[in-house]
Amino acid sequence: MKPFGYQRPVTAEEAVSLGARPGARYLGGGTNLVDLMKLGVEAPELLVDVTGLALGNITDTPDGVLVGATVRNSDLAADPRIRRGYPVLSQALLAGASGQLRNMATVAGNLLQRTRCLYFQDVSKACNKRLPGSGCPARVGIHRDLAILGASAHCLATHPSDMCVALTALDAVVEVAGQHGVRQIAITDLFPLPADDPARETVLGPGSLITGVKLPVLPMAVNSRYRKARDRASYAFATGSVAAALHVADGVVADVRIALGAVAPVPWRARRAEQALVGQPAVARSFLGAADAELAVADVLPQNGYKVPLLRNLITAVLTELAEATRR
Amino acid sequence: MSADLPGHSRIVLSVNGTEHPLDVVDNRSTLLDVLRERLDLTGTKKGCDHGQCGACTVLADGRRINACLTLAVAVQGRQITTVEGLAASSGLSQLQRAFLEYDAYQCGYCTPGQLCSATGMLAEAAAGWPSAVTAGDAAAELDTAEIRERMSGNLCRCGAYVNIVTAIEAVARPR
Protein backbone atom coordinates (compact mmCIF):
# COMPACT_ATOMS: atom_id res chain seq x y z
CA MET A 1 0.00 0.00 0.00
CA LYS A 2 1.26 3.43 -0.92
CA PRO A 3 1.82 5.82 2.03
CA PHE A 4 -0.84 8.50 2.45
CA GLY A 5 -1.67 11.49 4.59
CA TYR A 6 -4.64 11.50 6.96
CA GLN A 7 -6.84 14.44 7.90
CA ARG A 8 -10.00 14.58 9.96
CA PRO A 9 -11.70 17.93 9.30
CA VAL A 10 -14.60 19.15 11.43
CA THR A 11 -16.33 21.42 8.92
CA ALA A 12 -17.71 20.56 5.49
CA GLU A 13 -15.88 23.56 3.95
CA GLU A 14 -12.57 22.27 5.25
CA ALA A 15 -13.42 18.78 3.97
CA VAL A 16 -14.29 20.06 0.48
CA SER A 17 -11.06 22.03 0.33
CA LEU A 18 -8.99 18.99 1.39
CA GLY A 19 -11.03 16.67 -0.83
CA ALA A 20 -10.23 18.76 -3.92
CA ARG A 21 -6.51 18.12 -3.54
CA PRO A 22 -4.96 15.79 -6.12
CA GLY A 23 -5.13 12.15 -5.01
CA ALA A 24 -7.51 12.84 -2.12
CA ARG A 25 -10.28 10.41 -1.17
CA TYR A 26 -13.00 10.78 1.42
CA LEU A 27 -12.97 8.09 4.09
CA GLY A 28 -16.25 7.03 5.73
CA GLY A 29 -16.40 3.56 7.28
CA GLY A 30 -13.60 2.33 5.04
CA THR A 31 -15.28 -1.01 4.41
CA ASN A 32 -14.74 -0.77 0.65
CA LEU A 33 -12.01 1.88 0.29
CA VAL A 34 -9.54 0.32 2.75
CA ASP A 35 -10.11 -3.08 1.13
CA LEU A 36 -9.42 -1.62 -2.34
CA MET A 37 -6.28 0.06 -0.99
CA LYS A 38 -5.06 -3.33 0.25
CA LEU A 39 -5.77 -4.77 -3.20
CA GLY A 40 -3.88 -1.94 -4.91
CA VAL A 41 -6.98 -0.82 -6.80
CA GLU A 42 -7.06 2.48 -4.90
CA ALA A 43 -3.87 4.36 -4.02
CA PRO A 44 -4.89 7.72 -2.51
CA GLU A 45 -2.30 10.27 -1.43
CA LEU A 46 -4.58 11.76 1.20
CA LEU A 47 -7.50 10.33 3.16
CA VAL A 48 -10.01 12.90 4.33
CA ASP A 49 -11.93 11.26 7.17
CA VAL A 50 -15.46 12.70 7.06
CA THR A 51 -16.76 10.93 10.17
CA GLY A 52 -15.87 13.95 12.31
CA LEU A 53 -18.26 16.20 10.37
CA ALA A 54 -21.68 17.01 11.82
CA LEU A 55 -23.46 14.83 9.27
CA GLY A 56 -24.52 11.94 11.49
CA ASN A 57 -28.20 12.72 12.10
CA ILE A 58 -31.53 11.61 10.68
CA THR A 59 -33.84 14.64 10.60
CA ASP A 60 -37.54 15.13 9.82
CA THR A 61 -38.10 18.05 7.44
CA PRO A 62 -41.29 19.40 5.81
CA ASP A 63 -40.37 17.76 2.49
CA GLY A 64 -39.11 14.44 3.79
CA VAL A 65 -36.50 12.74 5.93
CA LEU A 66 -32.91 13.99 5.64
CA VAL A 67 -30.32 11.30 6.31
CA GLY A 68 -26.84 12.65 7.06
CA ALA A 69 -23.97 11.34 4.95
CA THR A 70 -22.15 9.68 7.85
CA VAL A 71 -25.16 7.93 9.38
CA ARG A 72 -24.11 4.32 9.75
CA ASN A 73 -26.03 1.73 7.75
CA SER A 74 -27.09 -0.07 10.95
CA ASP A 75 -28.50 3.09 12.55
CA LEU A 76 -30.47 3.93 9.42
CA ALA A 77 -31.90 0.41 9.18
CA ALA A 78 -33.02 0.47 12.83
CA ASP A 79 -34.55 3.96 12.78
CA PRO A 80 -38.28 3.68 13.60
CA ARG A 81 -39.20 6.34 11.00
CA ILE A 82 -37.44 4.35 8.29
CA ARG A 83 -38.87 0.99 9.42
CA ARG A 84 -42.43 2.35 9.40
CA GLY A 85 -42.36 4.91 6.59
CA TYR A 86 -39.80 3.41 4.18
CA PRO A 87 -39.55 -0.31 5.05
CA VAL A 88 -37.94 -1.09 1.68
CA LEU A 89 -34.90 0.95 2.74
CA SER A 90 -34.54 -0.74 6.13
CA GLN A 91 -34.92 -4.17 4.50
CA ALA A 92 -32.37 -3.39 1.78
CA LEU A 93 -29.81 -2.24 4.34
CA LEU A 94 -30.34 -5.33 6.48
CA ALA A 95 -29.98 -7.57 3.41
CA GLY A 96 -26.48 -6.20 2.84
CA ALA A 97 -23.10 -7.11 4.34
CA SER A 98 -22.78 -8.22 8.00
CA GLY A 99 -23.62 -6.70 11.36
CA GLN A 100 -20.01 -5.54 11.75
CA LEU A 101 -19.82 -3.93 8.30
CA ARG A 102 -23.21 -2.22 8.69
CA ASN A 103 -21.93 -0.68 11.95
CA MET A 104 -19.00 0.80 10.01
CA ALA A 105 -20.44 1.68 6.60
CA THR A 106 -21.87 5.15 6.03
CA VAL A 107 -24.71 6.24 3.75
CA ALA A 108 -22.41 8.24 1.46
CA GLY A 109 -19.85 5.45 1.38
CA ASN A 110 -22.54 2.98 0.41
CA LEU A 111 -23.58 5.27 -2.48
CA LEU A 112 -19.98 5.53 -3.69
CA GLN A 113 -18.87 1.92 -3.21
CA ARG A 114 -17.23 0.31 -6.23
CA THR A 115 -18.24 -2.72 -8.23
CA ARG A 116 -17.21 -6.17 -7.01
CA CYS A 117 -16.48 -7.32 -10.59
CA LEU A 118 -13.56 -9.75 -10.26
CA TYR A 119 -11.58 -8.07 -13.03
CA PHE A 120 -11.93 -4.62 -11.46
CA GLN A 121 -10.63 -5.93 -8.12
CA ASP A 122 -7.64 -7.79 -9.59
CA VAL A 123 -4.86 -5.42 -10.65
CA SER A 124 -3.19 -8.17 -12.68
CA LYS A 125 -6.17 -8.12 -15.09
CA ALA A 126 -7.29 -5.63 -17.72
CA CYS A 127 -10.30 -3.47 -16.79
CA ASN A 128 -11.67 -0.41 -18.59
CA LYS A 129 -13.03 0.97 -15.35
CA ARG A 130 -9.76 0.71 -13.41
CA LEU A 131 -7.39 1.31 -16.32
CA PRO A 132 -9.27 3.02 -19.18
CA GLY A 133 -8.54 1.50 -22.57
CA SER A 134 -7.03 -1.71 -21.19
CA GLY A 135 -10.02 -3.80 -22.25
CA CYS A 136 -12.74 -5.85 -20.58
CA PRO A 137 -12.00 -9.57 -20.21
CA ALA A 138 -15.40 -10.22 -18.59
CA ARG A 139 -17.38 -10.49 -21.81
CA VAL A 140 -15.47 -13.61 -22.85
CA GLY A 141 -14.45 -14.51 -19.29
CA ILE A 142 -16.33 -14.74 -15.99
CA HIS A 143 -19.55 -12.72 -16.16
CA ARG A 144 -22.05 -14.78 -14.19
CA ASP A 145 -22.65 -11.92 -11.74
CA LEU A 146 -22.50 -9.11 -14.28
CA ALA A 147 -25.00 -6.83 -15.99
CA ILE A 148 -27.89 -7.71 -18.31
CA LEU A 149 -29.22 -4.15 -18.57
CA GLY A 150 -27.45 -0.85 -19.35
CA ALA A 151 -24.01 -2.35 -19.97
CA SER A 152 -21.74 -1.41 -22.87
CA ALA A 153 -19.11 -3.14 -24.97
CA HIS A 154 -16.55 -1.56 -22.62
CA CYS A 155 -17.98 -2.60 -19.24
CA LEU A 156 -20.63 -4.85 -17.75
CA ALA A 157 -19.85 -4.39 -14.08
CA THR A 158 -22.81 -4.17 -11.72
CA HIS A 159 -23.42 -1.62 -8.99
CA PRO A 160 -23.15 -3.73 -5.82
CA SER A 161 -25.35 -1.82 -3.37
CA ASP A 162 -28.62 -3.00 -1.85
CA MET A 163 -29.34 0.35 -0.18
CA CYS A 164 -29.09 2.26 -3.46
CA VAL A 165 -31.73 0.05 -5.07
CA ALA A 166 -34.21 1.08 -2.37
CA LEU A 167 -33.16 4.74 -2.63
CA THR A 168 -33.72 4.58 -6.40
CA ALA A 169 -37.25 3.24 -5.95
CA LEU A 170 -37.92 6.01 -3.42
CA ASP A 171 -36.66 8.83 -5.71
CA ALA A 172 -34.10 9.89 -3.12
CA VAL A 173 -32.21 13.12 -3.65
CA VAL A 174 -28.47 13.32 -2.95
CA GLU A 175 -27.23 16.57 -1.40
CA VAL A 176 -23.73 17.54 -2.45
CA ALA A 177 -21.41 20.30 -1.25
CA GLY A 178 -18.65 21.47 -3.55
CA GLN A 179 -16.29 24.34 -4.11
CA HIS A 180 -19.05 26.15 -5.98
CA GLY A 181 -21.80 25.70 -3.42
CA VAL A 182 -24.46 23.15 -2.67
CA ARG A 183 -26.55 21.19 -5.14
CA GLN A 184 -29.17 18.47 -5.17
CA ILE A 185 -28.97 15.49 -7.51
CA ALA A 186 -31.74 12.96 -8.09
CA ILE A 187 -30.27 9.55 -7.35
CA THR A 188 -31.18 8.40 -10.86
CA ASP A 189 -28.96 11.21 -12.19
CA LEU A 190 -26.03 10.47 -9.85
CA PHE A 191 -24.82 7.37 -11.68
CA PRO A 192 -24.25 7.61 -15.47
CA LEU A 193 -24.30 4.48 -17.61
CA PRO A 194 -20.80 3.35 -18.61
CA ALA A 195 -21.12 3.82 -22.41
CA ASP A 196 -17.55 4.41 -23.62
CA ASP A 197 -16.29 5.81 -20.29
CA PRO A 198 -16.79 3.23 -17.52
CA ALA A 199 -14.22 4.95 -15.29
CA ARG A 200 -16.75 7.75 -14.79
CA GLU A 201 -19.06 6.26 -12.15
CA THR A 202 -20.80 9.36 -10.82
CA VAL A 203 -21.45 12.92 -11.99
CA LEU A 204 -19.54 14.25 -8.96
CA GLY A 205 -16.42 16.31 -9.63
CA PRO A 206 -13.22 16.45 -7.54
CA GLY A 207 -13.85 17.61 -3.99
CA SER A 208 -17.61 17.11 -4.24
CA LEU A 209 -18.79 15.94 -0.83
CA ILE A 210 -22.06 14.11 -0.32
CA THR A 211 -23.57 15.69 2.80
CA GLY A 212 -26.84 13.78 2.95
CA VAL A 213 -29.68 11.95 1.25
CA LYS A 214 -33.23 13.26 1.26
CA LEU A 215 -36.09 10.77 1.27
CA PRO A 216 -39.06 12.62 -0.21
CA VAL A 217 -42.50 12.41 1.37
CA LEU A 218 -43.99 9.29 -0.21
CA PRO A 219 -47.04 7.87 1.59
CA MET A 220 -47.16 4.79 -0.65
CA ALA A 221 -43.70 3.80 0.64
CA VAL A 222 -45.42 2.43 3.76
CA ASN A 223 -46.33 -0.46 1.45
CA SER A 224 -42.84 -1.21 0.12
CA ARG A 225 -40.40 -4.06 0.34
CA TYR A 226 -37.01 -5.37 -0.77
CA ARG A 227 -36.26 -8.89 -1.88
CA LYS A 228 -32.80 -10.20 -2.69
CA ALA A 229 -31.62 -13.43 -4.29
CA ARG A 230 -28.08 -14.58 -3.51
CA ASP A 231 -25.89 -17.65 -3.47
CA ARG A 232 -26.16 -18.18 0.30
CA ALA A 233 -28.79 -17.22 2.85
CA SER A 234 -26.86 -14.29 4.34
CA TYR A 235 -23.77 -12.13 3.92
CA ALA A 236 -23.43 -12.26 0.13
CA PHE A 237 -23.90 -9.83 -2.72
CA ALA A 238 -27.10 -10.11 -4.74
CA THR A 239 -27.46 -12.14 -7.89
CA GLY A 240 -30.63 -10.10 -8.38
CA SER A 241 -32.81 -7.90 -6.21
CA VAL A 242 -36.01 -5.86 -6.35
CA ALA A 243 -37.14 -2.80 -4.40
CA ALA A 244 -40.77 -1.83 -4.92
CA ALA A 245 -43.58 0.29 -3.53
CA LEU A 246 -47.19 -0.17 -4.59
CA HIS A 247 -50.38 1.86 -4.25
CA VAL A 248 -53.58 0.06 -5.22
CA ALA A 249 -56.99 1.75 -5.50
CA ASP A 250 -60.15 -0.27 -6.27
CA GLY A 251 -58.05 -3.24 -7.29
CA VAL A 252 -56.11 -1.22 -9.86
CA VAL A 253 -52.48 -0.09 -9.73
CA ALA A 254 -52.67 3.64 -8.99
CA ASP A 255 -48.93 4.18 -8.53
CA VAL A 256 -45.88 1.95 -8.41
CA ARG A 257 -42.11 2.26 -7.97
CA ILE A 258 -39.74 -0.50 -9.00
CA ALA A 259 -35.94 -0.62 -8.94
CA LEU A 260 -33.64 -3.56 -9.65
CA GLY A 261 -30.25 -4.46 -8.19
CA ALA A 262 -27.30 -6.55 -9.41
CA VAL A 263 -28.47 -6.42 -13.03
CA ALA A 264 -26.97 -3.14 -14.29
CA PRO A 265 -23.98 -0.80 -13.86
CA VAL A 266 -26.31 1.47 -11.88
CA PRO A 267 -29.18 0.86 -9.48
CA TRP A 268 -31.80 0.25 -12.20
CA ARG A 269 -35.10 2.12 -12.15
CA ALA A 270 -37.63 -0.08 -13.97
CA ARG A 271 -39.63 2.66 -15.65
CA ARG A 272 -40.89 0.44 -18.46
CA ALA A 273 -42.41 -1.91 -15.92
CA GLU A 274 -43.92 0.98 -13.98
CA GLN A 275 -45.50 2.47 -17.11
CA ALA A 276 -46.88 -0.91 -18.11
CA LEU A 277 -48.56 -1.33 -14.73
CA VAL A 278 -50.33 1.92 -13.97
CA GLY A 279 -54.08 1.46 -14.52
CA GLN A 280 -53.82 -2.32 -14.71
CA PRO A 281 -55.48 -4.76 -12.28
CA ALA A 282 -53.16 -5.44 -9.31
CA VAL A 283 -52.85 -9.15 -10.04
CA ALA A 284 -49.99 -11.52 -10.86
CA ARG A 285 -50.76 -11.51 -14.60
CA SER A 286 -50.19 -7.74 -14.76
CA PHE A 287 -47.01 -8.00 -12.71
CA LEU A 288 -45.59 -10.68 -14.99
CA GLY A 289 -46.36 -8.55 -18.03
CA ALA A 290 -44.65 -5.55 -16.46
CA ALA A 291 -41.56 -7.63 -15.62
CA ASP A 292 -41.42 -8.87 -19.20
CA ALA A 293 -41.73 -5.31 -20.51
CA GLU A 294 -38.67 -4.31 -18.49
CA LEU A 295 -36.60 -7.38 -19.25
CA ALA A 296 -37.37 -7.41 -23.00
CA VAL A 297 -34.30 -5.23 -23.54
CA ALA A 298 -32.00 -7.47 -21.48
CA ASP A 299 -28.74 -8.33 -23.25
CA VAL A 300 -27.51 -11.64 -21.87
CA LEU A 301 -24.24 -13.53 -22.17
CA PRO A 302 -23.72 -17.28 -21.75
CA GLN A 303 -23.35 -17.20 -17.93
CA ASN A 304 -25.79 -14.51 -16.81
CA GLY A 305 -28.96 -15.38 -18.72
CA TYR A 306 -30.41 -16.87 -15.53
CA LYS A 307 -30.96 -13.35 -14.29
CA VAL A 308 -33.88 -12.79 -16.68
CA PRO A 309 -36.21 -15.45 -15.20
CA LEU A 310 -34.80 -14.72 -11.72
CA LEU A 311 -35.76 -11.05 -11.96
CA ARG A 312 -39.06 -11.86 -13.65
CA ASN A 313 -39.99 -14.05 -10.70
CA LEU A 314 -38.64 -11.62 -8.08
CA ILE A 315 -40.55 -8.66 -9.55
CA THR A 316 -43.77 -10.66 -9.76
CA ALA A 317 -43.41 -12.07 -6.25
CA VAL A 318 -42.65 -8.73 -4.60
CA LEU A 319 -45.52 -6.93 -6.33
CA THR A 320 -47.91 -9.78 -5.56
CA GLU A 321 -46.93 -9.61 -1.87
CA LEU A 322 -47.43 -5.85 -1.86
CA ALA A 323 -50.84 -6.20 -3.57
CA GLU A 324 -51.89 -8.80 -0.99
CA ALA A 325 -50.76 -6.51 1.83
CA THR A 326 -53.13 -3.78 0.57
CA ARG A 327 -56.05 -6.22 0.71
CA ARG A 328 -55.50 -7.06 4.37
CA MET B 1 -2.67 14.01 15.48
CA SER B 2 -0.35 15.86 13.13
CA ALA B 3 2.83 13.87 12.71
CA ASP B 4 6.35 14.98 12.02
CA LEU B 5 6.84 12.19 9.51
CA PRO B 6 4.84 12.24 6.26
CA GLY B 7 2.32 9.39 6.15
CA HIS B 8 2.49 8.91 9.91
CA SER B 9 0.45 10.12 12.85
CA ARG B 10 0.77 10.45 16.60
CA ILE B 11 -2.26 8.86 18.21
CA VAL B 12 -3.70 7.67 21.49
CA LEU B 13 -5.63 4.42 21.38
CA SER B 14 -8.00 3.54 24.18
CA VAL B 15 -8.17 -0.24 24.49
CA ASN B 16 -9.85 -2.20 27.28
CA GLY B 17 -9.87 0.89 29.48
CA THR B 18 -6.18 1.70 29.03
CA GLU B 19 -4.86 4.68 27.08
CA HIS B 20 -1.99 3.77 24.77
CA PRO B 21 -0.04 6.78 23.43
CA LEU B 22 1.68 5.81 20.16
CA ASP B 23 4.13 8.45 18.97
CA VAL B 24 4.59 7.18 15.41
CA VAL B 25 1.91 5.18 13.65
CA ASP B 26 2.01 4.56 9.91
CA ASN B 27 -1.36 5.79 8.57
CA ARG B 28 -1.61 2.53 6.65
CA SER B 29 -1.79 0.48 9.87
CA THR B 30 -5.07 -1.20 10.54
CA LEU B 31 -6.46 -1.34 14.05
CA LEU B 32 -5.98 -5.12 13.83
CA ASP B 33 -2.26 -4.84 13.15
CA VAL B 34 -1.71 -2.20 15.83
CA LEU B 35 -3.53 -4.30 18.43
CA ARG B 36 -1.48 -7.38 17.59
CA GLU B 37 1.93 -5.97 16.65
CA ARG B 38 2.21 -2.84 18.78
CA LEU B 39 0.08 -3.57 21.85
CA ASP B 40 0.70 -7.34 22.00
CA LEU B 41 -3.04 -7.95 22.21
CA THR B 42 -2.94 -11.07 20.07
CA GLY B 43 -6.38 -12.34 21.07
CA THR B 44 -7.85 -10.53 18.07
CA LYS B 45 -7.19 -12.75 15.06
CA LYS B 46 -6.37 -12.11 11.42
CA GLY B 47 -8.27 -14.42 9.09
CA CYS B 48 -9.02 -13.02 5.63
CA ASP B 49 -7.86 -9.42 6.32
CA HIS B 50 -10.62 -8.27 3.90
CA GLY B 51 -13.73 -8.01 6.08
CA GLN B 52 -15.13 -11.33 4.96
CA CYS B 53 -14.57 -13.68 7.93
CA GLY B 54 -15.12 -11.74 11.18
CA ALA B 55 -12.11 -13.21 13.04
CA CYS B 56 -10.89 -9.66 13.77
CA THR B 57 -14.16 -8.44 15.31
CA VAL B 58 -13.71 -5.99 18.19
CA LEU B 59 -16.04 -3.46 19.82
CA ALA B 60 -15.74 0.30 19.29
CA ASP B 61 -17.85 2.17 21.84
CA GLY B 62 -19.66 -1.11 22.33
CA ARG B 63 -20.43 -1.66 18.63
CA ARG B 64 -18.92 -4.57 16.76
CA ILE B 65 -16.64 -3.73 13.84
CA ASN B 66 -14.03 -5.46 11.67
CA ALA B 67 -10.61 -4.33 12.91
CA CYS B 68 -8.97 -5.38 9.62
CA LEU B 69 -10.79 -2.69 7.61
CA THR B 70 -10.45 -0.03 10.31
CA LEU B 71 -7.47 2.29 10.17
CA ALA B 72 -5.93 2.84 13.60
CA VAL B 73 -5.73 6.61 13.02
CA ALA B 74 -9.49 6.68 12.46
CA VAL B 75 -10.54 5.27 15.87
CA GLN B 76 -8.95 7.83 18.15
CA GLY B 77 -11.35 8.90 20.87
CA ARG B 78 -13.32 5.66 20.63
CA GLN B 79 -13.25 3.03 23.37
CA ILE B 80 -11.99 -0.21 21.87
CA THR B 81 -12.78 -3.52 23.56
CA THR B 82 -11.01 -6.70 22.47
CA VAL B 83 -11.57 -10.26 23.62
CA GLU B 84 -8.99 -9.61 26.35
CA GLY B 85 -11.34 -6.97 27.74
CA LEU B 86 -14.58 -9.00 27.83
CA ALA B 87 -13.92 -10.61 31.19
CA ALA B 88 -14.37 -8.54 34.35
CA SER B 89 -11.98 -8.81 37.27
CA SER B 90 -14.67 -11.00 38.85
CA GLY B 91 -14.38 -13.56 36.04
CA LEU B 92 -15.44 -14.52 32.54
CA SER B 93 -18.45 -12.89 30.90
CA GLN B 94 -21.72 -14.79 30.62
CA LEU B 95 -21.03 -15.43 26.92
CA GLN B 96 -17.52 -16.70 27.59
CA ARG B 97 -18.88 -19.10 30.20
CA ALA B 98 -21.59 -20.27 27.80
CA PHE B 99 -19.01 -20.91 25.04
CA LEU B 100 -17.13 -23.13 27.51
CA GLU B 101 -20.25 -24.88 28.76
CA TYR B 102 -21.64 -25.65 25.28
CA ASP B 103 -18.27 -26.39 23.63
CA ALA B 104 -18.82 -23.62 21.07
CA TYR B 105 -15.54 -24.05 19.19
CA GLN B 106 -13.13 -26.57 17.82
CA CYS B 107 -9.77 -25.01 16.89
CA GLY B 108 -10.66 -21.72 18.59
CA TYR B 109 -9.25 -19.37 15.96
CA CYS B 110 -12.57 -17.67 15.21
CA THR B 111 -13.65 -17.67 18.88
CA PRO B 112 -12.40 -14.20 19.93
CA GLY B 113 -14.26 -12.70 16.96
CA GLN B 114 -17.35 -14.79 17.69
CA LEU B 115 -17.33 -13.63 21.33
CA CYS B 116 -16.90 -9.94 20.50
CA SER B 117 -19.48 -10.18 17.73
CA ALA B 118 -22.02 -11.95 19.95
CA THR B 119 -21.44 -9.38 22.72
CA GLY B 120 -22.17 -6.56 20.27
CA MET B 121 -25.07 -8.45 18.72
CA LEU B 122 -26.84 -8.97 22.06
CA ALA B 123 -26.61 -5.23 22.72
CA GLU B 124 -28.04 -4.49 19.25
CA ALA B 125 -30.98 -6.83 19.88
CA ALA B 126 -31.54 -5.32 23.34
CA ALA B 127 -31.73 -1.90 21.66
CA GLY B 128 -34.52 -3.23 19.41
CA TRP B 129 -32.51 -3.40 16.19
CA PRO B 130 -34.12 -5.58 13.52
CA SER B 131 -32.36 -8.11 11.27
CA ALA B 132 -33.09 -9.37 7.78
CA VAL B 133 -35.27 -12.13 9.24
CA THR B 134 -37.23 -9.94 11.65
CA ALA B 135 -40.91 -9.83 10.66
CA GLY B 136 -42.66 -6.46 10.63
CA ASP B 137 -41.49 -3.65 12.87
CA ALA B 138 -41.78 -5.47 16.17
CA ALA B 139 -38.79 -6.13 18.41
CA ALA B 140 -37.29 -9.50 17.62
CA GLU B 141 -36.99 -12.43 19.99
CA LEU B 142 -33.56 -13.98 19.55
CA ASP B 143 -34.48 -17.43 18.28
CA THR B 144 -32.15 -19.68 16.28
CA ALA B 145 -33.00 -18.03 12.95
CA GLU B 146 -32.33 -14.56 14.34
CA ILE B 147 -29.01 -15.58 15.90
CA ARG B 148 -27.83 -17.31 12.73
CA GLU B 149 -28.66 -14.27 10.59
CA ARG B 150 -27.17 -11.76 13.02
CA MET B 151 -23.96 -13.80 13.39
CA SER B 152 -23.48 -14.40 9.65
CA GLY B 153 -20.48 -12.06 9.61
CA ASN B 154 -18.43 -14.58 11.60
CA LEU B 155 -17.24 -17.65 9.76
CA CYS B 156 -16.07 -20.83 11.51
CA ARG B 157 -14.15 -23.17 9.24
CA CYS B 158 -14.38 -26.01 11.77
CA GLY B 159 -18.14 -25.70 11.47
CA ALA B 160 -18.84 -25.25 15.17
CA TYR B 161 -21.90 -23.17 14.30
CA VAL B 162 -24.44 -25.44 15.98
CA ASN B 163 -22.85 -25.07 19.40
CA ILE B 164 -22.05 -21.39 18.87
CA VAL B 165 -25.75 -20.70 18.27
CA THR B 166 -26.70 -22.84 21.28
CA ALA B 167 -24.27 -20.97 23.53
CA ILE B 168 -25.51 -17.57 22.40
CA GLU B 169 -29.12 -18.67 22.74
CA ALA B 170 -28.44 -19.78 26.32
CA VAL B 171 -27.39 -16.23 27.16
CA ALA B 172 -30.02 -14.48 25.03
CA ARG B 173 -32.90 -16.60 26.33
CA PRO B 174 -31.92 -18.10 29.68
CA ARG B 175 -34.22 -20.96 30.66
How would you sum up this structure, described in words?
- The complex is a heterodimer of chains A (328) and B (175).
- Chain A has 328 residues and is of the alpha+beta class.
- Among the domains of chain A are: 1-49, 2-Layer Sandwich (Uridine Diphospho-n-acetylenolpyruvylglucosamine Reductase, domain 2); 223-327, CO dehydrogenase flavoprotein, C-terminal domain (Enolase-like, domain 1).
- Chain A contains 13 helices and 12 strands.
- In chain A, the strands form 3 sheets. In chain A, strands 4-5-8-6-7 form a 5-stranded antiparallel β-sheet. In chain A, strands 9-10-11-12 form a 4-stranded antiparallel β-sheet.
- In chain A, helix 2 (33-39) links the parallel strand 2 and strand 3 (46-49).
- The longest helix of chain A has 21 residues, at 307-327.
- The N and C termini of chain A lie far apart (56 Å).
- Chain B is of the alpha+beta class and 175 residues long.
- Chain B folds into 2 domains: 8-85, Beta-grasp domain (Ubiquitin-like (UB roll)); 94-172, [2Fe-2S]-binding domain (DNA polymerase, domain 1, Orthogonal Bundle).
- Chain B is 29% helix and 16% strand.
- Chain B contains 5 helices and 5 strands; from the N terminus they run E-E-H-E-E-E-H-H-H-H.
- A 5-stranded mixed β-sheet of chain B has the order 2-1-5-3-4, covered by helices on one side.
- In chain B, helix 2 crosses helix 5.
- Chain B is globular and about 55 Å long.
- The model of chain B has no long low-confidence stretch (mean pLDDT 95).
- Chain A binds chain B through residues 1, 3-6, 8, 27, 29-31, 34-35, 37-38, 47, 49, 51, 74, 77-78, 80, 83-84, 87, 90-91, 94-95, 97-101, 103-104, 233-235, and chain B through 1, 6-7, 9, 26-28, 30, 49-51, 54, 57, 63-66, 69-71, 73-74, 117, 120-121, 124, 127-132, 134, 137, 148-154.
For the biggest β-sheet of chain A, the strand order reads 4-5-8-6-7
Relative helix content of chain A: 25-40%
Question: In CATH terms, what is the fold-level topology of the largest domain in chain B?
Answer: DNA polymerase, domain 1
Question: What is the chain-wise order of helices and strands of chain B?
Answer: EEHEEEHHHH
Number of DSSP-assigned strands of chain B: 5
SS element count, helices of chain A: 13
- Calculate Rg of chain A over CA atoms: 19 Å
Write down the secondary-structure element order of chain A: EHEHEEEHHHHHHHEEHEEEEEHHH
CATH superfamily caption of the domain at 223-327 in chain A: CO dehydrogenase flavoprotein, C-terminal domain
Number of DSSP helical runs of chain B: 5
Proportion in helices of chain B: 25-40%
* CATH-derived architecture of the domain at 223-327 in chain A: 2-Layer Sandwich
